[in-house]
Amino acid sequence: MTSVYIIANPSSGQGKAIQAIAELLKLFHEEGLGPLVKLTQEESDIAEYAQKACQAKVDLVVLVGGDGTISHFMTAVQDYDYKPVVGIVPTGTMNNMARSLNIDQNPKKACKQVLQNQAQAIDMGLINGQVFTSTISAGSVPASAREVSQEDKEQYGALAYIINGLQSFSQGQDECYKVLLDGVEVQLNIDLLVIGVANSIAGYTDFFKSATYTDGLLHLFILKEAPVAEKIFAFSKLLAEPDQAQDLSQFAQGADVNSYMTSFKDIKIDLLDKGGQVTMDGNPGPSFPIHVEVIPQFIQVIVGD
């Protein structure tokens, strides 16, 4: 390894990102390397630096930030044959990808993992031609998550999302979707739809319990229209063992099962009667209809212990 970029969101983590940059520079200098530090002010900066790293065939890019920083980087390198190895130092709110890859949530310890650990080829998701790294979601809960301010995220962390999500359970309205999965097409009223690349969703590492970034699959959770008490019960049961229907058509027709979980490689979903968009890696994403598929072994990422 001879060339290293550090792409960092300096505002991430209430000063944690700046401390992580200093720690990385110290560790790399001890190895005789002088990384180029690229600080981002806007989303377009991440794309610019990512593309330059591919064009220059940089050996390693260390991303310092949250899920949004990682997502924008992966989108920017999508069309390049050469992609640098990626290291991650998590300083965001949820850090879903870092959690799923067992990367330490302590930025200083994560810096050491970047230099000491091995890289692994991991999967990504693709929605309407755009890469996503962690999560696609739709319904009242994701819509409320988009309303959480940066100030609240910095002050309350994941708790800010939980508070808004609980409020949306009582205030939100279900919507009618058309879902095409494995040749089966159904229409059903959905309050929450989640697609994940790996196990960690909203900071909870056992949402999709057996899912990994190397299984070649994406993972789907659906919560149907139900009274508030039943929604909360379905979620609490998910923490232990999710409800399973034999197939999607059975789930759509059944009245006794409120939640459904499965794994897949390709799915098409449309929101009927009105327009709308998904939440992608915590940010506003593409509008419906959506086509979601897995990209196996998209890029090499240094994983945790």
From TrEMBL:
Transmembrane segments: none
Reported cofactor(s): Mg(2+)
GO MF annotation: an example: ATP-dependent diacylglycerol kinase activity
Keyword vocabulary terms for this entry: ATP-binding, Kinase, Lipid biosynthesis, Lipid metabolism, Magnesium, Metal-binding, Nucleotide-binding, Phospholipid biosynthesis, Phospholipid metabolism, Transferase
GO BP terms, alphabetized: phospholipid biosynthetic process
Cellular component GO terms held in the UniProt record: plasma membrane
Source superkingdom: Bacteria
Pfam families: DAGK_cat (PF00781), YegS_C (PF19279)
Record-annotated DAGKc domain positions: 1-131
UniProt family annotation: Belongs to the diacylglycerol/lipid kinase family.
Name of protein: YegS BmrU family lipid kinase
